[in-house]
Specification:
The strands form 5 sheets. The chain has a 9-stranded mixed beta sheet with strand order 6-5-7-8-4-9-10-11-12, sandwiched between helices. A 4-stranded mixed beta sheet has the order 13-14-16-15. It has a 3-stranded antiparallel beta sheet with strand order 2-1-3, with no helix packed on it. It has 10 helices and 21 strands. The longest helix has 18 residues. It is globular and about 75 Å long.
Length: 465
């Protein structure tokens, strides 16, 4: 009898999430993406030995009591961009790998070039920075640096996409900060696969992470996102790095936000605000005024249909203005339009207003929106939106110094929200003096006139024609 050689079997790997399956499918079972499974040949593995053991090896460093471990290796150094340091938890930690992901054209490269310029600026804390670009030519990055004022002698630029060449640049320059733009364009010569594929992206990230930990070198990686807004590449990519940041922004607005998704060195729910300008990107330490159309307005200039609330974006309180317009309609089904708000929640609030508050809306078109391109999905804005709709319906303007906080239930009750003390402190800092809050809220030290409201009818009684 002739022995049959081991057959080569095929597996299929998703280029989006890295899910592996033995059979081809049009849709990935892991991330539900269509047409992302690619075939990969692999030899059949021999059955593992039943009694295989791992031999003990010599430890690289002896174990020590935790109190004797030095803290210098985990102390963050400011990057020079205050809003980014706020999200990072104080700055860049030596050996940390940070993944910054966002849509094309949102400003990721501009932000990291600003970080590189601040780190390489002349001063006692100036550092040598290596900026590696795989998507643009060196001349393109040079033009952007000249436009944003990011030209410094300690900032080095390399247009490379090969991992071995990048490691050669690191050995030659010995930088204090490494920026890779972007990780999906880098390739490792020791691994098969196309650039941006699951295998290549994982191998490049593993190699850069090992380099960062070995030399104590902070590494900033630019990452792409899919059409669904998720980070492109295998899901394990987010587990390999220390910090994952999401860079968000509307193409019709100059406002940009950096959100912490994962952070091993600080809070993972911080938000940094930036404004994208022709001269570069600028941090906004006080962005609340961007979301208020009636900031500093008087009672005579306030238009009916507006209300101001305070939302928590991560741990940061931001004032937001919600607007409503109610117009009579002769159509059998009046239109409902929503911008910057959750359409399902707006529909629920309109039903509560009509059933529990007696506001007739069935024959009216209702348009609701936020100011400044802000997206508000927090339930704490329910009461403000209800008052804005009722104000527009009755054509009665709310006081300009009024802040409204509270979540509305289906029974018309006003529910408590978290962080009332921080919300009121932010509103008082910007000049608001009166607040409507749910009963039992913590309002100590706010310095404002506080009125507790328990149901929607009690709130609407304040809006009279």
């Amino acid at each position: 009898m002739t022995t049959r050689s081991r057959a080569v079997r095929s597996s299929y790997t998703c280029t989006e999430c890295g899910h592996r399956t033995a059979q081809w499918n049009g849709r990935c079972p892991g991330c539900q993406a269509w047409g992302t499974l690619t075939e990969q040949a692999e030899p059949a593995r021999a059955p593992a030995a039943a009694s295989r053991r791992v031999a003990a090896g010599a430890p690289s460093t002896p174990a020590r009591p935790i109190a004797e471990v030095e803290l210098d290796s985990a102390k963050a150094r400011p990057s020079g961009v205050d809003e980014l340091d706020r999200v990072l938890g104080g700055g860049l930690v030596p050996g940390a790998v940070v993944l910054l992901a966002g849509e094309p054209g949102v400003g990721k490269s501009t932000l990291l070039l600003e970080v590189a310029a601040k780190a390489a600026s002349v001063g006692p804390t100036a550092r040598t920075v290596l900026y590696v670009t795989g998507e643009e030519s060196a001349g393109q990055v040079r033009l952007r640096a000249e436009r944003t004022g990011a030209l410094h002698d300690r900032l080095y630029l390399a247009a490379e996409s090969d991992l071995s060449s990048i490691l050669g640049h690191v050995d030659a320059l010995r930088p204090d900060l490494l920026i890779i733009d972007s990780v999906q364009t880098m390739t490792s010569p020791d691994v098969d696969g196309t650039p941006g594929g699951v295998t290549q992206t994982r191998a490049v990230t593993v190699a850069l992470t090992a380099l960062a930990k070995e030399r104590g070198l902070p590494v900033l990686l630019v990452g792409h996102v899919t059409k669904d807004g998720n980070i492109a590449g295998p899901r394990v990519l987010e587990h390999l790095v220390d910090v994952v940041l999401s860079f968000e922004g509307d193409k019709h607005s100059t406002l940009r936000m950096v959100r912490g998704v994962k952070n091993r060195f600080g809070p993972a729910d911080e938000v940094g605000c930036f404004e994208l300008r022709d001269s570069g990107i600028v941090g906004l330490p006080d962005p609340s005024g961007l979301f208020l159309a009636r900031f500093g307005a008087t009672q005579a200039s306030v238009v009916p249909g507006t209300a101001v609330t305070v939302v928590m974006d991560g741990r940061r309180p931001l004032l937001a203005e919600v607007q409503a317009l109610v117009a009579t309609s002769s159509m059998p089904t009046p239109r409902r339009a929503v911008s910057g708000l959750d359409s399902a929640r707006v529909a629920m609030l309109l039903a509560v207003l009509e059933r529990r508050g007696g506001v007739r809306l069935q024959d009216s078109e209702v348009y609701t929106a936020t100011v400044g391109g802000m997206k508000v999905t927090e339930p704490a804005a329910d009461l403000a939106l209800a008052m804005a709709v009722a104000s527009a319906k009755n054509d009665v303007a709310l006081p300009p110094d009024l802040i409204v906080l509270g979540e509305l239930g289906l029974a018309g009750e006003v529910r408590r929200v978290s962080g009332v003390d921080r919300r009121l402190a932010e509103a008082a800092r910007l000049g608001f003096t009166h607040a409507l809050v749910p009963p039992g809220s913590d309002t100590r030290g706010s310095g404002m006139k506080i009125t507790e409201v328990s149901d929607v009818s009690q709130v609407l009684s304040r809006i009279k024609r």
